[in-house]
Each structure stands twice: as structure tokens, then as C-alpha cells.
């Protein structure tokens, strides 16, 4: 029976050592778990800060895009206004050209019947540019 008691004590000691080893291992794993939780929290905070920075950048780029579109629309309106002025000037030039050609034709027809006017020099036309001020 003493032999059984010694075996039981050895077995109990072995169980205590295993229990101690498991407790140490458990504490080690608990520390590793806490460390990983801290790292995870730090990563989440860093990623949240980075995401907020990227959202700010996106907002700034959207503002820049909106401003650029507004500026393009303004330039397009100015271009359209200038194109309208150009078209009006082209129409006016064509009208003056037609009038000048008509006067020249009348002058040539009138000079056929009047031989004394043939000695006059032929009329020359000079273009006097008008300055236009634009409100745009």
C-alpha cells in the first residue's frame, strides 16, 4: 500500500507539474492574445485615420472637379458669345461687301454712258476696322 501511495503521490506531482506547465502556457497565450488585440486595435485606428485622410482627399478632388466644370462652362459661354459676335460681324461684312459690289457695278454701268468720267481714277476702298468692346 505504501508503494501505491508513492505512485499516487508521483502521479499527483506529475499532474501538478503538468497543471503548472498548462497554467504557464495559458498565461503566455493570454499575453500573446492581449498583444494581438492591441496590434489589431492599432491597425484599425491607423486604417481609420488613413480612410479619413482619403475621404478628405476625395472631397477636395470632387470640389476641384466641380470648380473645373464650372470654369469650363464659363469658358464655353464666353466662347459662344464670341462666336455669336464673330457670326454677326461676318454677316455685317458680307452685307457691306455686297453693297460695295453693287455700288461698283452701278458706277461701272454709269461710266459706260459718260465718257468724260472715264478719265477719273477708279475708286479704291480701304477698310477701317471698328473697335468693339465686349462685356465678357
In words, what does this structure look like?
With 136 residues, this protein is mainly α. The protein has one helix and no strands. The protein has one helix at residues 2-113. The radius of gyration is 50 Å and the shape is rod-shaped.
Strand content: under 5%
Q: Please describe the biggest sheet, giving its number of strands, its sense, and whether it closes into a barrel.
A: none
Count of DSSP strands? 0
State the share of residues found in helices, binned by percent: over 70%
Q: Over the alpha carbons, how many angstroms does the gyration radius reach?
A: 50 Å
Could you state the order of secondary-structure elements as H and E?
A: H
Rounded average pLDDT: 86
Keywords: Coiled coil, Intermediate filament
Domain IF rod: 1-107
Protein name: AINX protein
Coiled coil: 26-85
Short synopsis of the structure:
This protein is mainly α.
Question: What attributes characterize this protein structure?
Answer:
about 140 residues, mainly alpha, about 80% helix, rod-shaped
What's the SSE blueprint?
Blueprint: H1 2-113
